[in-house]
Amino acid sequence: MLIKVEAIVREEKFEEVKDALNQIEVNGITVSQVMGCGAQRGYKEVVRGSEIDIFLQPKIKFEIVVSSEEWEKKVIDTIQKAAFTGDVGDGKIFSYEIRSVMKIRTKETGYDAVQSQFE
């Protein structure tokens, strides 16, 4: 079974989360800059003397595919510890079971498609 873990975290926590995942030897990570909002619903800012609502917050999204529930728990625990500030807006972690995956170049499927191979 393959599991995808997605984490949306504060921008300033990028290096800490990346380094923590590297320490537990996670091999494949996809990172994106995203915008979103949660319970905090943005904030107000004064621009050229006018107050405006900033609704969407910049965040970082990590995507990691793991091969077992054990690794899923390990990755989730690692991200939670590295991304935690205790303030509203720390982010969310999601996990999904993957139905299928194919490596485009070799047509390998399943676990073989996501494991790192340096040929």
Beta content comes to 35-45%
Runs in which pLDDT lies below 50 for 5 or more consecutive residues are: none
Mean pLDDT: 89
Q: N-to-C terminal Cα separation, in Å?
A: 25 Å
Query: Helical content, roughly?
Result: 10-25%
Largest sheet: 4 strands, antiparallel
Task: Please write the string of helix (H) and strand (E) elements.
Answer: EHEEEEHEH
Structural class: alpha+beta
Extended strand count = 6
Q: What characteristic shape results from the CA principal axes? A: elongated
Rg, rounded, reads 17 Å
* Alpha plus pi helix count: 3
Strand order of the largest sheet: 2-5-1-6
Top keywords for this entry?
4-stranded antiparallel beta sheet; 119 residues; alpha+beta; N-reg_PII/ATP_PRibTrfase_C; elongated; N-reg_PII; two-stranded antiparallel ribbon; 3 helices; P-II family nitrogen regulator; N-reg_PII-like_a/b; 6 strands
Task: Summarize the model shown.
This protein is of the alpha+beta class and 119 residues long. The chain contains 3 helices and 6 strands, in the order E-H-E-E-E-E-H-E-H.
Write the layout of secondary structure elements.
Elements: E1 2-10, H1 14-23, E2 30-36, E3 43-47, E4 50-54, E5 57-66, H2 69-83, E6 91-98, H3 111-114
Antiparallel strand pairs: 1-5, 1-6, 2-5, 3-4
Helix pairs in contact: 1-2
What does this structure look like?
The chain is of the alpha+beta class. About 25% of the residues lie in helices and about 35% in strands. The protein has a four-stranded antiparallel sheet, covered by helices on one side. A hairpin with a 2-residue loop joins strand 3 and strand 4. Helix 1 packs antiparallel against helix 2. The longest helix has 15 residues, at about 70-85. The protein is elongated. The two termini are about 25 Å apart.
